[in-house]
Amino acid sequence: MTKRYAVILAAGQGTRMKSKLYKVLHPVLGRPMVQHVIDQIKAVQLDQMVTVVSRGADRVVEHIGSDSAFVIQEEQLGTGHAVIQAEDVLKDKEGTTMVVCGDTPLISTETYQALFEHHEKEGASATILTTKTKEPSGYGRVIRSETNEVERIVEHKDANANERLVEEINTGTYCFDNQALFSALKEISNDNVQGEYYLPDVIEVLRGRQEKVSAFITPDFEETLGINDRLSLAQAEKIMKHRINAKHMRNGVAIIDPDHTYIHPDVVIKPDAVIHPGTILTGATTIESDAEIGPHSEVNNCYVGSDSVIKQSVTANSKIGERVKIGPYAHIRPESAIENDAKVGNFVEIKKATIGTGSKVSHLSYMGDAQIGNNVNVGCGTITVNYDGKHKYLTTIEDDSFIGCNSNLIAPVTIGADSYVAAGSTITKDVPAASLSVARARQTNKEGYATKLKNRQND
Ligand code: UD1
Ligand code: CA
Questions:
Q1: Nearest Cα to 51, choosing from 153, 62, 43?
Q2: Lower CB count within 10 Å: N or C terminus of the chain?
Q3: What residues of the chain score a pLDDT lower than 50?
């Protein structure tokens, strides 16, 4: 089988983004666009992948990690110049080299695969992935001969009025015979409006050498969208969002309003889960069957067990068991576990805490650095006082305890199993199991005193 290589162009400044972030690192549904490109390409069996980055692009390298080799393009002199940077890595190889832009994150593995196959079947020296659009502005146009053969590509800025009418565009993705590519690159110049070495100019060079140049027209312009500014970035986000939502719906997930539901690529959702509008599911999140998320909830890196409900809440890096109820308006912060049948109600914040099976923290509480056993009831307004300005301390509430409303539990402290804490207590010492603890001033009533006070004020 022919050897296959890929060069990913990711060194451009992305000036049209008007951003301090490298263009290819701008996220599309939480993942840098270049990473989408690499993820889709690596599913095609490749013998080598090389990514061209600019100097100081440590963050690009960091994101792509071990998936690709890297070469540096010191100065951004154009896409042709960028490919030349990969010459040292690839020049001795025989086979097909695909060149892909790091700013076309929607192209799928299937399209890359089809392009490779078309190129190899045709025995072409170069194959351009092209598509047609009524709005070709900004893209390079594919100029064909009278016999309909691809002759060259002209960039939008260099094109004359007639050429600009052409609706077939260069998607920026190509397959080349590896040797022919690097040899043709030696002949391109920067004699054009932008003063750049254009990769598409190798097409004309190859044609001049009577080499076979082919085009593979994909019907899906949307998929080939190139991201150059924030408008096209938002467009890509929208397209990818619908693609991902459609996949989940086909798998049996109920998405009530796919226009307003944002599911990142790594999220796993089981059939019969219901995702309500305004929900954002990110990171390595798993939602089990029959769970209901939203409306207006954000779940990042969480496991959510079956039949659980999360309403108008934010949860991160935590495990949520089965039949759990969260919200409305709860905040589950990292390293928490809400066990089966537990409830975390409105205006409750949980941080690095375990809420045991069947336990309830129903209203207006803060449970931080806490281990709460099973069947515990934490009354409204209870606070774990976990921080002394320097260190954090643990609060433990053992099984079957009842914490009265508006209690302060000053950590480190343990409330033994089967205990009661009277409402309004400030607990500073451990409470032994099966005890009632009252830690508040005793009430005194002075009968008639209010009347006396009022009379005195009226004098
Ligand atoms: C390019 C094509 C155009 C095509 C369009 C498709 C050229 C000259 N033009 O135009 O025909 O229709 O893509 O989206 O190739 N890059 C580098 N180093 C550089 C310059 C660019 O690595 O010196 C990288 C960029 O990071 C980017 C890619 O190459 O990922 C494309 O560059 P960009 O400037 O976006 O090209 P377009 O003007 O969109
Ligand atoms: Ca581009």
A1: 62
A2: C
A3: none
